[in-house]
Amino acid sequence: MPGVYVLAEHDRGVTDPATHEAFTAASALAANLGESVVAVCVGSFDSDFEIACSQYGISEGIILTSPLITDYGPEIWGQAVADLLKLCDPRVIVAVGTDKGNEVLAQASARSDMPFVANCVEVEHKADWAITRTQWGGSLLEDVTVSGDFLFLSYAHHAVEPVPSATPSEVTLQLLEVEVDSALTRTLVQERTTLTEGATLSTASVVISGGRGVGSADAFAPLEELAELLSGKVGCSRAVTNNGWRSHADQVGQTGTRIAPEIYIACGISGAIQHWVGAMASKNILAINTDPEANMVTKAGYAVIADLHEVVPAVIDEIKRRRGTT
Amino acid sequence: MRILVCVKRVPAPGSRINVTEDGLSVDTAHLGFTTSPHEECALEEAAQLIEEHGGSVCVLTVGPAEAEEQLRYAASVGGTDFSLVLNDTGQDWDPQQTAASIGEAVHQLEAETGIFDLILFGNESADAGGYQVGVRVAVALNRPIVNGIKGIEVEGESLAASREVDGGIEVYSLPTPAVLGIKEGINLPRYPTMKGRLASKKAEIQTTETKVPAGTQRLVRLHRPEEKVTETEVLGDGPEAATKIVDLLDELGVL
Ligand SMILES: Cc1cc2nc3c(=O)[nH]c(=O)nc-3n(C[C@H](O)[C@H](O)[C@H](O)COP(=O)(O)OP(=O)(O)OC[C@H]3O[C@@H](n4cnc5c(N)ncnc54)[C@H](O)[C@@H]3O)c2cc1C
Ligand SMILES: Nc1ncnc2c1ncn2[C@@H]1O[C@H](COP(=O)(O)O)[C@@H](O)[C@H]1O
């Protein structure tokens, strides 16, 4: 069956919400190309997949199975997706540009010797593919053309607003057995450790970050307390991780985590472009900085021009006062 | 252990990135050059691995003659051998061509000096961010690869490699020879020492050229994303701004 094939991302059957971005983008692309959309799930079937297809108006779903695909593995998933080229007739295979989405498409494209264009924001097909994609983690855009009929592409994460379909679709699911090389089980996940339950930096609705202006590892204590009060997470800039004040898992930016909270509170962060690209998907930004000219301040919707060491404790006190907990 | 690390020379931009008039490259008139933080960490990891297990760290780049600068820097922070694959077209090759030329260079290096137990890439390059060169090289060599790696343990003939995922850690176990895509955070890269600077001056760089077919991807134009002009509402200039901040949090429904 021809069409725009879109990869659903899941962790042991639980659909990653980023998949909704991929479904939305794929539907728009398919409409543009005059093709239908086919959603693809690798490995385990789960009702989550069917529900997501239905919500986003996708009526065809394929589950790629093999007794060897027992869990996530970049190589084996990549080969399963590459097999679609032999089993079906995809015009293009798309995913959302999360770590896993890009990893699987890179594998699939390498295994089928086809082009892969990561983190696209606009895609058209004229004589060739005409694509706008992000460079520098989103600080810069690049228009490229790609020759040839088929390609793999991922959409930049957080660049597409998921739009469920007005009318849920009836979904026809098809199980498709793929032949994968047993040697590729070498990169299946071996072991997992759960560190945090619930919201993480990338899914939190409140993120409070500190930069070099915080001054030391210990001086993050008030930011921690404020985050706790707001059920949020603490983030930081690269200056902070480079100083060893916090773990890199907390870093927001091009080489850290991309966040999209309801509000981002950036304390003592200058707002270098590599930091900004990780924070720009935030719905609201409040910058607390002593420098009124700092990039973070001029780009933020709200700012307080003052010492963060005075402002953050005052905010904590005010919240406690209103809640009657002091 | 014989380790190969692949790094890419890129401009080091400041608070914004400017594009040349023809739209074909980043305006580097006033910029220095560096590599991706992921690649700096890959090199540091390689240096630590051979300090512990013995061996060599070959550093390879595909780029213009000036990329020698990145190899000399690598020599100052633990690299032992250096290979520059010349691309003097004045433009990046596309990811398929870059991967093909690295693949060819690996074949040559391995024919001369033996198999690399481990090849390290950055998770993604700082500029292009194609998220694929390492994977393409690994697949061509038929070696296992996992990206996003933030921890490596040597366990006999295999490697335990771990990465952070939302809310936890995933561990993979790869037989060697293996390939890994490294993420910043796996370590804190060292700064060059006096001894390192001397090593950098003395480093011998092997320059080669490759012949691989052109890719299918062609750059038309670079441009900056439209900047939203934001009217910044200043809530205050001291701790008394706390009232307005908490009002705002309340309004947004996060209080
Ligand atoms: C390829 C590449 C990738 C990168 N990736 C990332 C990334 O993922 N994330 C990232 O963050 N950076 C990244 N960087 C680094 C980035 O360019 C900046 O160096 C970094 O973000 C600066 O951190 P900062 O804002 O904390 O520090 P600074 O730039 O030093 O800013 C400190 C700010 O604190 C303010 N300040 C000082 N004292 C106070 C006080 N008491 N109260 C209030 N304000 C105060 C100052 O006015 C200043 O604005 C990357 C760089 C490169 C080249
Ligand atoms: N020109 C190059 N020379 C050497 N290594 C490269 C080059 N381009 C990319 N790489 C390596 O491949 C990784 C992924 O690059 P990319 O596919 O562009 O995101 C980078 O982090 C580097 O380790």
List the helices and strands and how they pair.
The complex is a heterodimer of chains A (326) and B (255).
Chain A: E1 2-7, E2 10-11, E3 14-15, H1 18-33, E4 37-42, H2 47-55, E5 60-65, H3 74-87, E6 89-96, H4 99-112, E7 116-125, E8 129-135, E9 140-146, E10 151-155, E11 172-177, E12 191-194, E13 206-210, H5 221-229, E14 233-236, H6 238-242, E15 263-267, H7 273-279, E16 284-289, H8 295-299, E17 302-305, H9 308-323
Parallel strand pairs in A: 1-4, 1-6, 4-5, 5-11, 6-10, 7-10, 13-14, 13-15, 15-16, 16-17
Antiparallel strand pairs in A: 2-3, 7-8, 8-9
Helix pairs in contact in A: 3-4, 5-9
Chain B: E1 2-6, E2 10-12, E3 32-34, H1 37-53, E4 56-63, H2 68-76, E5 81-86, H3 95-113, E6 118-122, H4 133-140, E7 145-155, E8 158-165, E9 168-175, E10 178-182, H5 194-202, E11 205-208, E12 217-223, E13 233-236, H6 242-251
Parallel strand pairs in B: 1-4, 1-6, 4-5, 5-11, 6-10, 7-10
Antiparallel strand pairs in B: 2-3, 7-8, 8-9
Helix pairs in contact in B: 2-5, 3-4
The complex binds flavin-adenine dinucleotide and adenosine monophosphate.
Summarize the structure.
The complex is a heterodimer of chains A (326) and B (255). With 326 residues, chain A is of the alpha/beta class. In chain A, 29% of the residues lie in helices and 29% in strands.
